[in-house]
Structures are given as structure tokens and as C-alpha cells.
Amino acid sequence: SAELCLLPALATLLPPLPGPGGPGPAEVGLGGLPAELRTAVRALVGDLDDLFSALGLREENFAVGALSRIVAAELASYAPARNRKRTATNKASVVFVDRTLDLAGAVGHHGDNLAEKILSVLPKLPGHKTDVMVNMVELTALQTTDETCSIIAPGCLAQPNDPAAKALWESFMNLKQKEAVMEARRHLVEAASRENLPIKMSMGEVTPEQLSSYIKLFRNNLKALENHCGLLQLVLATIQTLKHPQTSKWDNFLAFERLLLQTVGESEMPSVLNQLLPMIKSYNERTKDDYTCEDFLVLLVYIYSVVGEIESGKELDAAEEEVKKALAKAICDEPEPSPLLQKIT
């Protein structure tokens, strides 16, 4: 979007996590990092220099976190960057922040943002880190209940050639979810009117079913499909996200995170873990509303991130041991472990 640029090639670049013996790398330079990480840092510095060259920037670097300080220092001493700064006309402040300093932000569910939900719940587009697969079956006469139907190529979110879709994506990123869904309806109604499709505009709350009924109007009209293909893909992404079971779980997560924040304020970590324990259920015991193993890992990352320093002791060790046992059992009982669980085990 106009305000956000992602560098997917560097999606796996993470600061080294602190080992069991205490905090992570103190003030080490680039030379103190593992070879793979050194290469990634150099690649990042080169990419950033290319990006700043394209924008004609003369930057001032600031850093928060150990790895960020290394990246900022490398960029400051990078020869092409020094040459660029002599001639560049635009000034900018660049702040580097270690990703591991905001894990609570990355795993929390506080954002009322449609773009975030779409990117979280729909399956990734193969080979992409920042785009998703949108099921396009609804736009065809082929009506199948097979989720994995691969006859029809998936749609995606990147629609650079469709001005309406680009505008709609901006509103997905910048508006609250309710407003963004209303924007989706408005764009769809305008597109249908332009194609003289028999659309009945309805007021009130927008439901996924209502958006689906509008989408069906385009189905047998090839010209309309072609003219608005980008927009239709974004609206289908919206419908599929709103209907997705993970989206209804989103509010459960949010409620539980708020409860945790209150509990952490009032009591010790062991009691928080003991609250969590009965909710860890194996595959055979779970209903669709229960948390999966991955959901628990996300919750645990959230809890430990917001708590900060923890006083260790017998009570905490016992509580952690129980949670570990329950999680290990749940992971072992998964009939088809997800790629993440396979990686962990």
C-alpha cells in the first residue's frame, strides 16, 4: 500500500533469541553473528540501499534492539549508501526495531482490521509470503463442495491493474472492519450498476451472504467478470474470511488475552498457567470452538511476552511442567500435524 512496503525475501530474518543462560547477543558486531545471519543482514542492507536510492533518500538511522543496531551500523558504513547520501535530496529518519521486541503485537488479536484477518486466515499463495489464495469457484458454474478444488486457479490480493480493487485494499488496511466491509459492498454495487446487472441495494449491516448474492450476479456475464475481476477477488477474500472458523475464534482470543492481562496484573504466573491447563485438549476431545495446539503456542508466546521478567520458583516450575506435558500429549495425538507442528517436533 502507499504507507507499507514489505520485503518478503527477508521474512525469515529474526534476531537470535536469548539462550537458556540469559540475554541474547550483547553488543556484538556483524562478525559475532552466525554466518547465515551475517549474509541475511548484508542482503537487507543492500536491499534497503536500493530502496532508498529509488526514493532519493538521505537517511538518519536509529535502532532499537541488538540486531537492529548491527543493521543500522552496517547501513551507515556501506560505501554505496555513503555515496548516495552525498547526492540525495530527500531527508528521512529510519528506525530499525528488532522483531522479537514486539512478539505480543505479532501474536495478539487486538487489531480490528480486515486486511490483517484476511492475511491471517486464508491459505498462503504458493511461493508467496505476503499474498493469499482466494477460492474462485463461486464465480463459475462449477459448484463443488470440495475445499481443495484445484481445477480453478486461485485469485489473490495483489491487483495492481484494477483501480477499484487498489482503492478497496487501501480501505481494508486503513479502516475498521465494519467500515471496510461496507466499502466492499459499495464497490460491488457500483460495479454491478455500471454493467447494468439487476442489483438490489440493501441498507443495514453487510453479511457475507449478501456479498455472495451480489457476486453471483457477475457469474454468467463474461464481460462484467473480465472488467471487475480484481475487485471480485478482493470481495471473495472478504466473504471467505468472514465465514472462516478462525475468524469467529478471533474474538475468543481477544477475550482471553484481555482476561490474561487482568489476571497477570492481579496474580502470579502459575495461576495464569493453571487457568490455561484445562483448555488444552487432545484432538479427540476438541470441538470446533476449542483451541488447537497452534492456538496454544500463540497464546503462550503472548502471555510470556506481556509478563516480562518472571520470578522462577517451585510453583512456577510445577505449573510449566503440567502445561508442557498436556501440550506434548496434544501434539503427539494430532492425526495430521500441521507443517508448523512437524517443524517443532
Describe this structure in words.
With 345 residues, the protein is mainly alpha-helical. The protein has 3 domains: 8-101, no CATH class; 114-243, no CATH class; 264-344, no CATH class. Helix content is 54%, strand content 5%. It has 15 helices and 2 strands. The chain has helices at residues 35-55, 66-77, 79-87, 103-107, 114-121, 163-174, 177-194, 208-217, 222-227, 229-243, 245-266, 269-276, 293-307, 314-332, 339-344, and strands spanning 57-64, 90-97. Strands 1-2 form a two-stranded parallel sheet. Helix 6 runs antiparallel to helix 7 and helix 7 packs parallel to helix 8. It is globular. The mean pLDDT is 87.
Please render the helix and strand layout as text.
Layout: H1 35-55, E1 57-64, H2 66-77, H3 79-87, E2 90-97, H4 103-107, H5 114-121, H6 163-174, H7 177-194, H8 208-217, H9 222-227, H10 229-243, H11 245-266, H12 269-276, H13 293-307, H14 314-332, H15 339-344
Parallel strand pairs: 1-2
Protein name: SCFD2 protein
InterPro entries: Sec1-like
Structural class: mainly alpha
Mean pLDDT: 87
Number of helices: 15
Strand line-up in the sheet with most strands: 1-2
pLDDT < 50 stretches: none
Percent of residues in beta strands? under 5%
Which H/E pattern describes the elements? HEHHEHHHHHHHHHHHH
The main sheet comes to: 2 strands, parallel
| Amino-to-carboxy terminus distance | 37 Å
Number of strands: 2
Molecular shape: globular
Number of domains: 3
Q: What share of residues is helical?
A: 40-55%
What is the rounded Rg?
24 Å
InterPro entries: Sec1-like (IPR001619)
Protein name: SCFD2 protein
Organism: Neopipo cinnamomea
